[in-house]
């Protein structure tokens, strides 16, 4: 399991600078524990700042929902200086909506949970919170081997995400 609250805080801070006045958080299924943990991290990153948070929630973690949330951000909220999405699929929808409207603003800073190699080729940097799949596999194998040898102990393994700053 990942520490989503801490990862969201680090991810959010990665797109904040002195010029940031408004920052948007796009998520889905707000009552889901993973969504609330990530949102808490986003909010923690803004504590003690004068930055206005814009929190938009959808019903599904789907590309079309990301586009809908981006449209709401632009049409009803007036946009933001920075934008963080709780999943890569939502970010894909954000890209769709901005592309339909002429492209991303040059000054908007972006970050997302999840990653894709294509983010390396965009003209605008997108920071991402990466899962450490090697460490997850290592811990899973270790637990499985311990269980096979009668030494398994119940517990929760937390694996930190890594910030990929572009």
Automatic annotation (TrEMBL):
Database matches in Gene3D superfamilies: 3.40.50.2300
Annotated PANTHER family: CATABOLITE REPRESSOR_ACTIVATOR, LACI-RELATED TRANSCRIPTIONAL REPRESSOR
GO molecular function: DNA-binding transcription factor activity; transcription cis-regulatory region binding
Stored SUPFAM superfamilies: Periplasmic binding protein-like I
Coiled coil (UniProt feature): none
Name this polypeptide is given: Periplasmic binding protein/LacI sugar binding domain-containing protein
Source domain of life: Bacteria
Family matches, as InterPro entries: Peripla_BP_I (IPR028082)
Keywords tagged on the record: Repressor
